[in-house]
Amino acid sequence: MLHQLRQQDVEQLLKKNMITVNDIMGLDWGGRFAIANRHFDKCDDAAKQALLHDQHHAVRAAASLFKPPVKFARVSAVALAIMDGKPNIGTLNGVKSLDGIEEMIISTHPFAILEAAEKFISGFEDDTTQLGVSELLAQLRACINPIR
After folding, report:
1. H helices of 1-148, where?
2. Among 50, 83, 126, 141, fewest CB within 10 Å belongs to which?
């Protein structure tokens, strides 16, 4: 029950553009930890300072170790940036068009392995004896889609 209430409190704060020190003071240490661990970048300077100096060591550690989520660039956007408006560019593998640059990026990126794993595991999607297949597929697809 306490966990659900804490989650509701944190979700309410996440609806705001900026989390203030007054917002986090009403949370228990678990709620402050959740904000410091995953949403430190939404805090104003005073809230960040409060989390960095919190009475609970886990909150302080989460705030000091926070890394903002990585935003993935799509392959097509990276290829366009590389091409820099040119129809073709020379590479170590010969002259490449936009499609060729995209193929080069894809061939060297680990998401090709994720796609192969997704294709294999999707064969078990309707197998009721396999537990957790839909959750695993959802995780794989969530990793693949932002990049493609």
Report:
1. 2-14, 21-25, 29-38, 45-52, 57-65, 75-83, 98-108, 111-121, 133-144
2. 126
Averages of pLDDT over each 10 residues, the chain, 148 residues: 77 90 91 91 95 94 82 78 91 91 81 80 86 85 70
Which DSSP category does 72 fall into?
Answer: P
Angle 132-134-140 from CA coordinates, rounded to 5°: 100
Query: For the whole model, what pTM was predicted?
Result: 0.48
Taking alpha carbons only, the member of 66, 31, 73, 38 closest to residue 52 is 66
* End-to-end CA, the chain: 40
Q: Which residue has the tokens 């402050």?
A: 32
Which of 28, 58, 63 lies closest to 10, judged by CA?
Answer: 28
